[in-house]
Structure formats: C-alpha cells, structure tokens
Specification:
The protein is α+β, with helices and mostly antiparallel strands. Helix content is about 35%, strand content about 25%. It is built from 18 helices and 28 strands. The protein is globular. It binds one RNA strand through β7, β8, α6, β20 and β23.
Length: about 575
RNA sequence: GCCGUUGUAGCUCAGUCGGUAGAGCGCAUCCUUGGUAAGGAUGAGGUCACCGGUUCAAUUCCGGUCAAUGGCUCCA
C-alpha cells in the first residue's frame, strides 16, 4: 500500500537536500506534507524564481535516481542535536529543538538520507525507489513568515505537488485548470457583471448593469424577507466621527482595518468599517421599554475596510463592500430565541440560494492566549456556552475555531470554499454582551428598573459582493431563473420578424420579466451561440411559424430542450418561476 | 505589505535572440433576410501598463512605479 503522506513528506526532505546542495547557505525552516503535496521553507539569500525552481527540480530527480538510498530513522540525545544543528548554523531548527527541550523532551527523532539529515517525526518511505515515477513536480515559490508570524523574517517557501501516480498528478492539475473556468473573476468579465478600474482604485468594484441587477434582486429578496421576519430597515451614513468608534471600542481594537480620519472643519470622521455604532445611536434616540424589545435594526450597508493590497481578491476581498447587516437589541432572556431565529433565517436563505450543501458552520470562540479580546471571562463563558447550546439544540453540525471570535463576543460563521479550494466566511453572526454597556444602552424593565439589553450582530445574506462571487462560482454563471440578470432573450430569425420581437418584448417587459432582444442582422445560429455563452435561462426563438400562431419557442438552457408556448402562457410560467425562486427551469 | 509570476487592440492571445507590431472575436459600413453554437466583404482601432536608464535605435535589455494573480500575514 502506498503511504501518500510518507511520500510527500519524503519529497520535502529531498527538496531540502537539493536546495542545500545548490545553495549551501540555505537554512531550513519547516517542511511538511500538505493535502496536495509538500513544501519546505528556506532562509535563502538568492532569489528563487522559475528558472531556479527548474534547477532544483532537476537536482531532486538526481537524488531520487539513487533508488536504494534509504531514509534511516535515528534518535539523538537532545543536547547533541542542539550542538549538531548549531554547528551547522541551522538557527531555525535549533529554535525548534530548544522548544522541545523546554517541554521536557530528552531526545529527538531524525531521518537521515545518507549524508543529509533533518529532525523529523516522520513517517517516511524506506528508500528513494518507493517514490512512484513522475508522481510529483515542483509547483511554485512563495514567501512565508517564519512560524506564520508577520513580525518574523520572511522565508522562501517552495511548494511541490505529489500524488500516488503520474495519472493522479495530471488529474489534479487538470482539475485545478477546470476550476479556474468557473472563477468568478473570469466569469464576471465574460458575463459583464462587474469590473475594476485603476483610476477608481483597487479593491473598489463597479457592478455593471447585469451585476447591479443581480445585486438588486438579492437585495430586494433579503429586505422583503427580513421585514417579514420583524426587522426594521434603516439607512445610516457611511461616515461617522472617530469618537463614535472610540465609544464602540473599534478605534482600539480595529484601527488597523480602518482608513485614516478625514478632517472636516476640525472634526475627525472615518469611513465606517461597520454599522453597529450607528444602529446603537439610533436605539438610543428614544427611551425603550421591555415592551419594545427586541428591536431589530437592519441595513444594506456600504462598509470600508483597509485591506493590504496583497489581500484583495476579486469580489471576495474588497476595500468597499456592502453588508446585509442587522443588530438585534433584546433582553438577555430573549437572546437564545432571537439567535435561533437568525439561524433559521440563514438556513432559509442558504436553501433559497441553493447553496446549503456547500456551506458549513463554524463556532468561532475566543483564544485565551490572545490579548485582542475584551477581558471579561464570565461574559465569555456565558456567551460561548449559549452559542454552543443553540447549535446543539438545532442539531446542526459545526466545527469549533479558537481565536476566530470578535473582540466583543463569539461568532457563528457560515463557511464556504471558493473555486481555488480556499475557505471563506460568507456570513457571520455574533453574540455581544459588551457593547450595550459601552454605549450605555438601556431599557426600562417591568419592575421599573433600567437594565442593559444584549445585542446580536448578524448578517443574512452576507456581503452582497462576496455572495455574488460565490453564486457565480457555484452556478458557473448559469444562475437560477430568479437571479439571472437576463431571464429571457428573444431571437428573431430575420429582420422581418423584428416587429414581432418588439411586440413580445413589450409584453414581457411590462410583466416584469428581465428580457432582452437580439434583432441584429445575424443568423439564428450565431444569436443562439451568444445567448448560450451568456448562460441565459431561456432563449426565445421568433420565426414565421411563431408569429403566425402568436407563440414563441423557448429553448431551455439546462436541458437544451425546446417547446412552443403562447406568449401569455410563457409569461405566466416565468412569473411563477420567479416568485418561487426555484432552482430548476420548469418550462 | 512581503515572496514568486504576469501586463501587447474593447476581449482572448501570437510575435519581436534590440530596427516602433499581428490574428480571431468584438466594433463601423456594405452585401446577405438567413430556423438552432460563429454567413461574407471592406474599414477603423495599439505611446506593446507607466516612468527612467543603457544604446545610433527599446515593446524587447536593466532599474523603479502601478495593476492583476499564486502564496504568507490579515479577513466579510
């Protein structure tokens, strides 16, 4: 049986040996197996580019050629190991061994391939000959901070792909290429959904008419649904005084993600990175009784967050984005039911968008060892337990992520994988027992006493831009009828049918269907091709027969089948489909 | 921000081992009035991302900047 992990791990050692052969000064960092191969980090003076990568790959092949060369497992007293690696100048390895020693270890495990060796737990294959032929290749070079900490030196990381066979490797590479075909950035351009401009600025997306239509559809959907569920929709400014964020604590905890203040007549304003303080001020605009609670302030809220240039990515990471945001102010007794209701709304939205199968839940809790969190252990204990209880009550599966909480409370995140296989948060909700205190929010309880409410921060459909990105990738641009920016396109087979196209167009347009017409002097085949490339749910063919019978022939995007309907019947069915938000085309 | 890669027409891309550029699609005009994934012809369109340097000559070589992208950090 092939132990893939051992192969990957062994290849990382081969990589390290090859690099140190070519660059004797290179110092070793970490070199683990990962889920598509392996990497090794080096502290290396020379620039490693594509050419160097090829040389390293050749050097690796030379090492592997010696099929009988073995990976021998040895152990060594820990002080001897420290001396050995100190003598070699392997400062990073020494750091690791010192740490093992501090933990009470007395010896270390070493794998040796003849003259080259590395401290390592294993497992490894026995000998070079156990590496399947051509099952691996070096992939790319990247920078990576020592121990993943920005404050440390950046090392050179070399990634390699490795699988159990050449076929598996080729399959993986092919899969990766195919995934790129549904990349929202590529489809966004092809389907004319959004664009960026250097003059406007990076991370600042512009939704083109079709993208804006999609966003409007999602926005209306979510606003209507929220209002139905007792939310009050509000509109607040995208700027706020610095003092507002000092009051909320964001100025202390979140300043790295905020833009520099703007001076207006001597007062300092910032572009808002979140909406909560605005909503809190709104809550405080009048006194509240327990009878008024919960109050659920919702807003489709443009936000501005500073992201380092290298962190931007299509519509997924932006500097200006729009969050379907809300803040629920309620009593602590109401908290559990309110949070459950939020989760039920989320489930409904995921189901409606058709992405329930793709998402998973993450309980993001505090990590005691980090100091970014509000210091109130009792509060944390209560809110984290509450979150877990709610999830367990609902019977939802979730994973726990320590250190992913907000500074003021635990989060329930909804996670999704993008086309490159990376996890992203699509929606996040927080339980907050802190900010009501900071903003001095209160309500009068039935006993006449002033009390503190608690707050739920939640999103419903996430950031519209990011959600749109995932929808593009999930559907590969072939959106459900109710989301599709263009729902039907009318294709006249000749200019002589253009008057009929105009007539049908007006009927559909008046019925609220998102309809386009193609009345150019082009062949039908060409119009169909272009309509299909745009993934339009229905192409309606208008020829002499159709005109005569007052019908249209609809071609179904998903099945490729086509059938004729009277215009009124087609409109009725389309209105129904739109209203039901169905993911299948019913005619 | 850092490490690597990339930047040629609106789009997708070719090309120039240094002598200022091409294709297809798109666009405009004309012909064609055509029934299921590209009908034909003609034409317009490029400071080869930007700024410097080397050179008789730079889109090509070198340096810097900007932007995109794969990682790292961060994150909705």
């Amino acid at each position: 049986m092939i132990n893939l992990e051992a192969i990957r791990h062994s290849l990382s050692h081969v990589l390290a040996e090859a690099v140190q052969k070519l660059y004797p000064d290179a110092k070793l960092g970490f070199g683990p197996a990962i889920d598509n191969g392996f990497y090794y980090d080096f502290d290396i003076k020379d620039k490693i580019g594509t050419e160097e990568l090829e040389k390293i790959q050749s050097a690796m092949k030379k090492i592997i050629k010696n099929k009988v060369k073995r990976f021998n497992h040895e152990t060594m007293p820990i002080d001897e190991a420290i001396k050995l690696y100190s003598d070699k100048g392997e400062i990073y390895k020494v750091e690791l061994i010192e740490e093992l020693k501090a933990k009470g270890e007395t010896e270390v495990s070493i794998y040796r391939q003849e003259s080259w060796s590395d401290i390592c737990k294993g497992p490894h294959i026995e000998k070079m000959g156990d590496i399947p032929k051509n099952c691996w290749k070096l992939d790319r070079v990247a920078g990576a901070y020592w121990r993943g900490d920005e404050k440390n030196k950046m090392l050179t990381r070399i990634y390699g792909l490795a699988f159990e066979s050449l076929e598996a490797l080729e399959e993986y590479i092919k899969m990766r290429e195919e995934a790129q075909a549904r990349d929202h950035r590529k489809l966004g351009k092809e389907l004319e959904l959004f664009m960026f401009s250097d003059l406007v600025g990076k991370g600042l997306p512009m939704l083109l008419p079709k993208g804006a239509t999609m966003r409007r559809v999602l926005e209306r959907f979510v606003i209507d649904e929220e209002i139905r569920r007792g939310y009050e929709h509000v509109i607040t400014p995208v700027l706020g005084k610095v003092d507002l964020y000092k009051a909320s604590g964001h100025w202390d905890h979140y300043q790295d993600s905020m833009y520099n203040p703007i001076d207006i007549e001597g007062e300092q304003f910032v572009l808002r990175p979140m909406t909560c303080p605005h909503h809190f001020e709104m809550y405080k605009g009048k006194p509240h009784s327990y009878n008024d609670l919960p109050r659920r302030f919702a807003e489709v809220s443009p936000l501005f967050r500073f992201e380092k240039s290298g962190e931007l990515s299509g519509l997924i990471r932006l500097r200006n984005f729009t969050l379907a945001d809300a803040h629920i102010v309620c009593t602590i007794e109401q908290l559990k039911d309110e949070f459950k209701a939020v989760l039920e709304l989320l489930k409904y939205i995921m189901d409606t968008l058709g992405i329930s199968d793709k998402v998973w839940f993450r309980a993001s809790l505090r990590d005691d060892t980090k100091d970014k969190y509000v210091d109130n252990p009792k509060m944390w204990e209560f809110s984290e337990k509450l979150l877990i209880d709610i999830l367990d009550d609902l019977g939802w599966k979730y994973e726990v992520a320590l250190g992913e909480a907000a500074f003021y409370g635990p989060k329930l995140d909804i996670q999704i994988k993008n086309v490159n296989g990376k996890d992203d948060t699509i929606i996040t909700n927080q339980i907050d027992l802190v900010l009501a205190e900071r903003f001095d929010m209160e309500f009068t309880d039935r006993d006449g006493q002033k009390k503190r409410p608690v707050i739920i921060h939640r999103s419903s459909i996430g950031c519209l831009e990011r959600t749109i990105a995932f929808l593009i990738e999930h559907y590969a641009g072939a959106f459900p009828f109710w989301i599709a920016p263009v729902q039907v396109k009318l294709l006249s087979i000749s200019e002589k049918l253009n008057d009929y196209a105009e007539e049908v167009y007006n009927k559909m347009f008046d019925a609220g269907i998102r309809v386009e017409k193609d009345v150019r002097d082009e062949k039908l085949g060409k119009k169909i091709r272009e309509g299909r490339l745009m993934r339009i749910p229905y192409l309606a063919i208008l020829g002499y027969d159709e005109k005569e019978s007052g019908k249209i022939t609809l071609r179904n995007r998903d099945t490729g089948e086509q059938a004729s309907y009277s215009v009124d019947e087609a409109i009725d069915k389309m209105i129904l489909m739109d209203r039901k938000k169905s993911n299948t085309l019913i005619i």
